[in-house]
Write a structure and sequence with these properties.
This protein has 259 residues and is α/β, with parallel strands linked by helices. The chain has three domains: 86 residues, no CATH class; 114 residues, Rossmann fold (3-Layer(aba) Sandwich); 30 residues. Helix content is 34%, strand content 14%. It has eight helices and nine strands. Strand 7, helix 7 and strand 8 form a beta-alpha-beta unit. The protein is flat.
Length: 259
């Protein structure tokens, strides 16, 4: 058995790295490996991820130019979560299920956020069919007005009613915001996964079309803010049935004309 376990992360998002963050500990504690290395072929959307997720991890022994397998899949077996499935596909198994991501960093508390509701409207990867109007309707139903909202970026669902804006320039500051807020609301993206790594329960918003395997943490309340109604489901099925009938009729006509 090889003594070194190598991890490579593709796609480069914060969540992508955190989905593998439990592997170094398990590789050493349960897998019998003496060394764990991160492949330099890994992708990073921001170098903060390398510093905070990997360089600060006490189970990591360094970095290597060696390649490594990267599990690819679109669903996970019942009774497991995304992190469990990655563990098993990499040939490890500590016998536990519903793993949380791991980060070896203790954020400083921000006193001004101690009693606050903070909303992060930003995302990079897909969060499903979710727009500002869906979030605002959810906030109105729940009588939520965020005391603070993170500065909107290129992709997001910023709401119109909110308190002061917060701009986070480093990942460590973002960790402090999550850990300090009384209630943190975000989209089901990297922020939700980071909160799970910090052990902070959040409300994570999503929309139809997002793979449910990304709803991986038992800590969180995952909320579909754009649920498809019964009428919409019926209309979708009717449209599919009508399209199938039309294709069949077109096929019959074409076959008749070709005789």
């Amino acid at each position: 058995m090889p003594e070194t376990f190598v991890i490579k992360i593709k796609h480069g998002g914060l969540g992508d790295h955190l989905f593998h963050s439990h592997l170094p500990r398990i590789a050493k504690q349960s897998g019998g490996f003496k060394r764990v290395l991160i492949s330099n072929l890994s992708e990073y959307r921001h170098l903060d991820y390398r510093r905070l997720v990997w360089e600060a991890n006490p189970y990591i022994d360094g970095f290597t130019d060696e390649d490594a397998p990267f599990p690819g899949f679109s669903s996970v077996p019942e009774g497991t979560n995304l992190l469990d499935h990655i563990m098993i596909m990499r040939g490890l198994d500590d016998g536990k299920r519903f793993h949380e991501p791991e980060i070896h960093f203790k954020p400083e508390r921000i006193d001004s956020l101690a009693g606050a509701t903070v909303y992060d409207p930003n995302y990079i990867s897909d969060v499903g069919n979710l727009e500002t109007e869906h979030v605002e309707r959810y906030f109105a139903r729940k009588k939520i007005t965020p005391d603070f909202m993170l500065q909107p970026r290129e992709k997001g669902a910023p709401v119109r009613r909110h308190g002061a804006l917060i701009e986070t320039k480093k990942l460590e500051h973002y960790c402090s915001v999550i850990a300090s807020a009384k209630r943190f609301i975000c989209l089901t993206s990297g922020g939700a996964t980071l909160a799970a790594a910090l052990g902070i329960p959040v409300v994570a918003l999503w929309g139809p079309g997002q793979w449910t395997m990304f709803h991986h943490s038992p800590l969180h309340n995952y909320v579909n803010v754009n649920p498809i109604t019964f009428r919409q489901r019926c209309q979708t099925r009717l449209n599919r049935y009508s399209q199938a009938l039309k294709r069949r009729a077109d096929g019959v006509v074409k076959k008749y004309l070709n005789k």
